[in-house]
Structure prediction request, 518 residues.
Amino acid sequence: MRRLARLIFIVITVLRFGLDEVALSGFRQRWVRALVRLVTVGRDLDEPRGVRLRRGLERLGPIFVKFGQVLSTRRDLLPLDIADELAGLQDRVPPFPAAQARTLVEKAFGKPIGAVFASFEAEPVASASIAQVHFGTLLDGREVAVKVLRPGMLHVIDDDLNLLHTLAGWVERLSADGKRLKPREVVAEFDGYLHDELDLVREASNAAQLRRNMDGLDLVMVPEMVWDYCTESVIVMERMHGVPISQIDRIRAAGVDIRKLARDGVTIFFTQVFRDGFFHADMHPGNIQVSLDPATFGRYIALDFGIIGTLTEFDKDYLAQNFLAFFQRDYKRVAELHLESGWVPPDTRIDALEGAIRAVCEPHFDRPLKDISLGQVLMRLFQASRRFNVEIQPQLVLLQKTLLNIEGLGRQLDPELDLWSTAKPFLERWMNDQIGWRGLLDRFKREAPRYAKLLPELPRLVHQALQREPMDRSSAALLALVAEQRRTNRLLQVLLFGAVGFIVGAVVARFWLQLNGL
Prediction:
């Protein structure tokens, strides 16, 4: 009943704010129009469509607000009046009362707010779908930002996710593409990310990890967490001073190199994805600022770490090879990678898949970002994937979303940015580090302690492998002959293993001594 009530609320909200105008414009039946008039009594359609869309998404809750945030970065796909209005969802969602925020902070810390802060600004500086942020000063004089979770979020999000799980089950059962699209797995991934975002301690730990990863890159700054004041519902962090990335005119007037800023954004993204396998997955303009401080002039400032994407070593290697093959226009290799990974059925014709990928990608090379829409490229790839039964990979959904955010951000900063030429050198260096001599040395260094422990045990292992079970003398001659052959093969295997182990051990020991200066 709760799901049905939520579904009815969604439908009424859509109709109340006039979001049905496009969807129902093609219907001419009288009973449909009569139903629309009946359930939409009192709605105000005098407001511009962008305002109505924003208000409708705000009323529907966090999941719909996040959908609007993603849409707001796609100015190439949306009318400007709608994109401008949806940009308000990034950090200007209506806040909850300041008195309630103070109460939540005091409840989280178990003490009066004056016992923690020398000052606490009542009005939030930013308000989003999950939480809002207040500035303050600790008793020791440090300027901080205080993030407070919106009350009642878990109940609202669980209702919407339950509805999404039900709809995903229907799609999987009723759609011809249900198995390939994996809707239940995709919703399960989304479910996990949203619940992680509701735990602010997890967000604080994400920020700490990202800060360590980005240390030394000198392109992006991540606020330091104040761990003494981090709880599941309230976290306190270093206050960052920057200009929102959306205020491009102000950034340009301050003397920041906008083209370099755009290239740095691509470098940061690919570093997080391919070097670390740990990337900021909510990179809409509301979470990105630029520092104008002389000491850190022109660097990015990353905020809001509730949604973080992770990739395994297999995912990173597969994606890097795919990107490089795309950049080198080796479409056959792209098709082979799809087959090797199991993303397409084993009987797929490589030449046919190669031709389909070439038809999608070739028209977009050697063109500036202003003339390319990754959204359209992905849509065409999606259409081609249906023909070849390509299975959707739920773990890569966040990466696809983030890539679209990066494209939208790059398009705003520098429409002439060549995404391909900017990313290709980075990926080539990364692949060389993985499969070249440097990668080999790094792996030897990581594995040396393990081999150092195993090498002294090698003689005992060889001795155990050479031990034979007593043979039954009453066995047939043929069985004895077969057993003898097996023992011979085992002995050869053990000797080979021992020789290889000795060689590997010697090499590892040599590198270990060199790396430790011995």
